[in-house]
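Final report, Chapter 2: Outcomes

The project's central promise was a pipeline that accepts a single protein chain and returns its three-dimensional structure in a standardized token representation, suitable for archiving and comparison. That pipeline is now operational. To close this chapter, we reproduce one record exactly as it appears in the project archive, with the input sequence first and the structure output second.
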Amino acid sequence: MTNQHLYRINGMTCKSCAAKIQETLQAIESINTISVDKPTDSATITFNRELSLNDLQELLTDLDPKYSISSNAISQQFDEEKPKAPTKSWFATYQPILLIFGYILGVTLVIQINQGQFELIEWMRHFMAGFFLVFSFFKMMDLKGFAKSYMMYDIIARQWSGWGYLYAFIELGLGIAFLIGSNLLITNMIALIIMSISIIGVLQSVLNKRTIQCACLGAVFDLPMSTVTIIEDGLMIVMSAMMIFYYL
């Protein structure tokens, strides 16, 4: 029977702190799974080999001296019945991203209606322009927080912390390029490569059932990683591939 331990962590000031602590402790071989929650200032940890409270405190101190872990850890069993926190509905959870997609879809369709005919390639160009511009905007609102969250699952960001910062500017550049119609063959090739790399980490996290925050809207919204993220990235991959074929 596997023990699950609940700890209180003091010193966290934002979701980025929680992401940084979770990333650091998840890399420890003795830790099987960890979930750090900023609203409750808590961490739920299961161990391959249990670490002492002093060991955990040393790890947190090395990360940042402001972090401390309380001594009143609560052990629980996975098969015990535990009270569950109220959960949001699927729509309430993903409302921000659904609204964004709805706005972009509506605006780009209005452009086509205003032209008197629907041109698929032009609509996709406008849609991708809106997608990259809006999503880069939310990443820019807390660039450091996004970069730290992105390190939790992206295959490049895990190896190089600067990738998260660069990625936000790449999205901004792609949005502008799609908007003005600049060298669309090259622009779509870059978009295809970037989104294909991005979806690898998303697929790994979803298939491994890791409970982590999706960084698609930066650190502004607390969106869990799920099939919605796969659909979002997959849609951009399909659109860019279709446009590459068109412009060849």
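Archive annotation: The two ends are 58 Å apart (CA to CA).
This record, like all others produced under the grant, will remain available to the consortium after the project formally closes.
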